[in-house]
Amino acid sequence: MPTTLAQQTLLEHYVKKILAAPVYELAVRTPLQEAPALSEALGNRILLKREDLQPTFSFKIRGAYNKLVQLGEEQKSRGVITASAGNHAQGVALAARELGIAATIVMPSTTPQLKVIGVRSRGAEAVLHGESFPFALAYALELAERTGRTFVSPFDDPDVIAGQGTVAMEILRQHQGELDAIFVPVGGGGLIAGIAAYVKYLRPEVRIIAVESEHSACLQAAMNAGERTVLPSVGTFADGVAVAQIGAFGFEVCQFCVDEVLTVSNDELCAAIKNIYDDTRSITEPSGALAVAGIKKYVARHGVQGQTLIAIDSGANINFDSLGHVAERAALEAV
Predict the structure, then answer these.
(1) What number is the average pLDDT over the span 80-94?
(2) Maximum CA pair distance of the chain?
(3) Fold identical between 5-58+158-334 and 60-151?
(4) Does the annotation count 60 as an active-site position?
(5) DSSP result, 150-209
(6) Given the residues 60, 115, 200, 297, the one annotated as active site
C-alpha cells in the first residue's frame, strides 16, 4: 500500500494507463473460473484467472499490443525487435502482424519448439540465440542498436506493464465481493507490477502475493537486497519466468505493493499443473501454474481457511512431449 505522495502518484499514473489501454482490439476478456476440487482440498475458495485462453495462450498479448499500438509511424516503419522465452514473443508477433510491423524475435535456443512455431506462424522472424533469456536479451539489444529497430521489452516498460494490468481491471469487475489475495507468477515483473498497481490503488486491503520458481527468484533476491540484483544462473523448466533480473519499472512498484514473495520447486509446479487439469481439463505450462503452486504453499504456511484466493493461470504453451515428465513428477509430489 502506498505510504508517500510519490507512491500514490505512481499508482495513479499506472491506473490511468491501464484504463486507457486499447488491448481488446486483439486480446480477449478471460473468465474467472471456480476451481472446486482445489477449493475443497485447501478449505478456501480458489478462482483461476484463465489467461491461458488468450489468442496466443498467454497474458503477454496484452502488454505487447499496448506497446506496439502506441509506437510512432516512423518506429512502426522501421520495425521492432524483442527478446522472449516464448510467450511475449508470440504476443509481439501477433500484434506486429495485425499492425503491419516487421518483427524480429530473439529466443533462447532452449525455447520449447511450440513457442518457436507460434512465432513463425504469426509472420515474425525467430532467431534462436543463447542458452537462456539473459543471453537472448543481450543479443536482441545489440541487434536493435545495429538495425535502428525499436526494442520492445517483455516486461520492463510502462506501456507493457499497463497492458498486463488490464488483467487486474477485469478481476475487480468480475469479482466485486470478498477477496483476500491475488497470486501472481513472476518472471521479469511486468504482470505483477500492473496487477499490484491497479489493485492496491482501488482495493488496498487485497494482498498481492508474488510466486517465483526457486530457480529464477529474481524478485525475492531484489526484495531481500533492497535493490535489483542479477542471479548468477537461472533454471529453464519454467521457461516463461526464467529471468535473471527483475525489471526496473516493475521493481519500483513491487517494493511497496507486494505483500509476500513465495518460491516453489519444479515438482510443486508439476503437481499444480495436475491440480489445474483436474478442475478445468486444461493443460498449463510450468510458469502458468506458479500461482496455484503458490496458493498451496501459502495455505500450508499460514493455515488460512475460508478465504477467497485468486490465481493467475498465465499460460499454456508447453511442448506435448514434456507432459510425461510433468505427470511423473506430479505423482511423486502427491505422495
Answers:
(1) 91
(2) 58
(3) yes
(4) yes
(5) EE--SSSSHHHHHHHHHHHHHHHHH--S---EEEEE-SSSHHHHHHHHHHHHH-TTSEEE
(6) 60
Question: CA angle at residue 315 from 328 to 298, to 5 degrees?
Answer: 70
Domain boundaries, given as residue ranges, for the chain = 5-58+158-334, 60-151
Choose the catalytic residue: 84, 153, 216, 314: 314
Q: How many residues does the chain have?
A: 335
Closest by Cα among 205, 200, 191 to 160: 191
Return d(Cα 80, Cα 279) in angstroms, integer: 39
> Taking a C-beta distance cutoff of 8 angstroms, is the pair 238, 213 a contact?
yes
Q: Is 115 a catalytic residue?
A: no
Instruction: State pLDDT tens for residues 101-150.
Output: 999 999 999 888 888 998 999 999 999 999 888 899 999 999 999 999 99
What pLDDT is stored for residue 204 in this prediction?
Answer: 97
Count Cβ neighbours within 10 Å for each residue of 130-147 and write b for 16 or more, e otherwise. bebbbbbbebbeebbeee
Domain 5-58+158-334 has CATH 3.40.50.720: no
List the CATH code of the domain at 60-151.
3.40.50.1100
What is residue 335's predicted lDDT score, i.e. its pLDDT?
39
* pTM, entire model: 0.95
Comparing CA positions, the residue from 283, 292, 269 lying closest to residue 47 is: 292
Question: pLDDT for 221-272, tens place per residue?
Answer: 999 999 999 999 999 899 889 899 999 999 999 999 999 999 999 999 999 9
Report the distance separating Cα 161 and Cα 67, nearest Å.
9
